[in-house]
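To the wet lab folks,

You asked to see what we're planning to order before we commit. Fair enough. Below is the target structure as tokens, and below that is the sequence we designed to fit it. If anything looks off to you, flag it before the synthesis order goes out.
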């Protein structure tokens, strides 16, 4: 496969990292690329660095916009893309030189619309080499990652799907819909993506609840309702389990910084959906008892 691949890179105040990121894309072994850099209103030298790369490489497209957030940047990137395939890369990360080629080859070999690799922060993969998994099986497995940059996607899968603006956990809000549409996923155990944990980033904060954790609750509810509408009981049950568990995690945790949590509202949401536990095939009896007991005493969750 030598079809055009669009690489979408939202950029915001990553002047220390963006050159290394773009360099890892420009020198890919797979050269038929459209490299879209969306400067999301950076206030450092990131925008200038993006423009410099545009002058060096005709495959680079730079879009400057006022700060609207990563979801808006990704949506613009998708709209401007002309490739048959899409990958997303964060501007403070970098990829192996065969990142695009390996993912493209997987889709060719297994005749899939989505392929998945591993990263330097992945837990040990259950895949010894490579395989193709049915979409529902993949979504229920430990191989499923909720970060966009693990995957290569056929662009047509994004028809009618956009990232929710103004919310964090935007990857999780979209990815399950894409995988479900794709019907199957080609997976490799190769580590092709290198994540950078920056000082002050969400992944490097002390343990506590962030805006991302709070937004994830609503996203999991939307996910469960989506699969209920599709009559996919196992997927819906799995999402309801995660929804209820995440509410209890947020309810019983400390917030990061000045973030405030309305625990009364959380408890109301929990009690409105606790009936989803009763015939849920994705929840063990021990877990069901814990969730049901938490209906009355939500602090019980802290003991487990």
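Sequence we intend to order:
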């Amino acid at each position: 496969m030598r079809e055009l691949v669009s690489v979408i890179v939202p950029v915001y105040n990553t002047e220390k990292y963006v050159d290394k990121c773009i360099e890892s894309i420009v020198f890919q072994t797979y050269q038929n690329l459209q490299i879209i850099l969306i400067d999301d209103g950076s206030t450092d030298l990131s925008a200038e660095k993006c423009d410099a790369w545009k002058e060096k490489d005709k495959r680079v497209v730079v879009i400057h916009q006022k700060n609207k957030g990563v979801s808006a940047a990704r949506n613009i990137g998708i709209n401007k893309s002309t490739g048959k395939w899409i990958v997303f890369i964060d501007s403070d990360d970098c990829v192996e030189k065969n990142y695009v080629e390996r993912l493209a080859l997987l889709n060719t070999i297994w005749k899939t619309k989505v392929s998945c690799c591993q990263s330097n922060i992945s837990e040990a993969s259950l895949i010894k080499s490579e395989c193709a998994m049915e979409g529902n099986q993949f979504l229920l497995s430990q191989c499923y990652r909720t970060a966009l940059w693990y995957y290569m996607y056929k662009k047509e899968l994004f028809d009618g799907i956009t990232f929710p603006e103004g919310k964090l956990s935007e990857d999780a809000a979209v990815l399950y819909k894409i995988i479900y549409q794709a019907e199957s996923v080609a997976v490799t155990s190769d580590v092709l993506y290198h994540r950078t944990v920056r000082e002050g980033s969400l992944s490097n904060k002390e343990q506590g609840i962030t805006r991302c954790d709070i937004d994830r609750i609503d996203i999991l509810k939307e996910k469960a309702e989506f699969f209920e509408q599709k009559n996919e009981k196992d997927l819906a049950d799995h999402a309801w389990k995660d929804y209820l568990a995440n509410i209890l995690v947020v309810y019983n945790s400390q917030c990061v910084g000045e973030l405030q949590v309305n625990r009364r509202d959380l408890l109301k949401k929990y009690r409105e959906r606790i009936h989803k536990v009763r015939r849920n095939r994705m929840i063990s009896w021990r877990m069901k008892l814990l969730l049901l007991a938490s209906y009355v005493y939500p602090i019980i969750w802290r003991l487990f």
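Structural context that might help your review: The chain has two domains: 5-194, 205-303. Confidence is low (pLDDT under 50) at residues 202-206.

Thanks,
Computational group
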